[in-house]
Design a protein that fits this description.
8 helices; alpha/beta; Rossmann fold; about 40% helix; 7 strands; single chain
Length: about 260
C-alpha cells in the first residue's frame, strides 16, 4: 500500500481531498496538521480509517516535521511515499507596524511548504515510478489585493518554488505542480468574507452574494470540487492501480477559481 501525505488536512480542501483519496484502493493517507482532534475527526470519517494515520505537526517546524516522517507510526519504510499534497496555510491581512503578521504568514505558507517538500524528498526518492507533489497556492498569486501583502507574497512565492523544484526533481520522476484556488467555501474564506462584510457594514450573506456576483460561475467552488483536481493529479499512485501516472505534467499551476482569473 502506497502513502500520500496531506498537510492542512484537518479542514477545508485538505479534509475533502483526504476523504476522496481514501475511496481508492492501494492508498494510505497521512494526515498532518496542528489540531490532532480535527485530524482524527477527518480520519474516522474516511473510507478504511484504520489504514490511515493522523499526526499533529507544525509545518513551520522543520525538525518536528522530519521527526514525524521518520516515525514508526507514519511507516514510510513499509508504505512508500508516492504523493505529497502540501496544502497547509493560513490567511488574513497584515499591516506594517506592531502586530504585523508578515513573518507568521510567510513562515507557515511559504517556509512551511518548503519544509514539507524538503522533508518528503528522501522518501519520494525511495519510491519507484512517477511521484506527484502538489502545492496549494492561490488565485491571489495572479493579482494583488490591498491589505494582504504577506498572503499574496507567500502564495506567489510558492509558484516560484514549484517551478524551481520541477526543474530539479522531475528528472528523478517527481512531478511538481501547484493548485491555485479562488473562492472556496471553507472556514478561511468565510472568515475573509466576514472581515470584508464588517468593513462595509454589510451582513455576511450580503457580502458573500456581492463576491459571488463578480465570478463568471456566480458561485464559490466547494472543497469537494477542488478535491476532484487533486484526485486527477494523483491518478495511478495507489499500489496496483491500472491508471497511468501523469509522467510529463510538471511545473504548472492549475487555476480553479470560478473564472475570477483567466490566463
Amino acid at each position: 500500500m502506497n502513502s500520500i501525505l496531506i498537510t492542512g488536512a484537518g479542514s477545508g480542501i485538505g479534509a475533502a481531498v483526504a476523504q476522496r483519496l481514501s475511496q481508492r484502493a492501494g492508498i494510505r493517507i497521512l494526515l498532518l496538521g496542528r489540531q490532532l482532534a480535527a485530524l482524527e475527526k477527518v480520519r474516522t470519517a474516511m473510507h478504511r480509517p484504520e489504514d490511515h494515520a493522523a499526526l499533529s505537526v507544525d509545518v513551520s517546524d522543520s525538525r518536528a516535521l522530519v521527526a514525524a516522517l521518520q516515525s514508526e507510526k507514519v511507516g514510510l519504510d513499509k508504505h512508500p511515499l508516492t504523493g505529497v499534497f502540501a496544502n497547509a496555510g493560513i490567511g488574513g491581512g497584515n499591516q506594517w507596524g506592531e502586530g504585523d503578521r508578515w513573518e507568521e504568514i510567510i513562515r507557515v505558507n511559504l517556509t512551511g511548504t518548503y519544509n514539507t517538500l524538503m522533508a518528503s524528498r528522501p522518501f519520494l526518492n525511495r519510491s519507484e515510478g512517477v511521484k506527484q507533489v502538489l502545492v496549494t497556492s492561490s488565485v491571489l498569486a495572479r493579482f494583488g489585493v490591498p491589505g494582504q501583502s504577506a498572503y499574496v507574497t507567500s502564495k506567489t512565492g510558492l509558484l516560484g518554488l514549484v517551478r524551481s523544484l520541477a526543474v530539479e526533481w522531475s528528472p528523478q520522476g517527481i512531478m511538481v505542480n501547484a493548485l491555485c484556488p479562488g473562492w472556496v467555501d471553507t472556514e478561511m474564506a468565510r472568515n475573509s468574507i466576514q472581515s470584508m462584510a464588517d468593513a462595509q457594514d454589510l451582513s455576511f450573506d450580503e457580502c458573500k452574494a456581492q463576491q459571488e456576483a463578480i465570478l463568471p460561475s456566480l458561485r464559490m467552488t466547494t472543497p469537494a470540487e477542488m478535491a476532484q483536481w487533486v484526485d486527477f493529479i494523483f491518478s495511478g499512485l495507489g499500489e496496483g492501480e491500472a491508471v497511468p501516472r501523469l509522467a510529463t505534467f510538471t511545473g504548472q499551476a492549475l487555476d480553479v477559481n470560478s473564472g475570477s482569473w483567466m490566463g
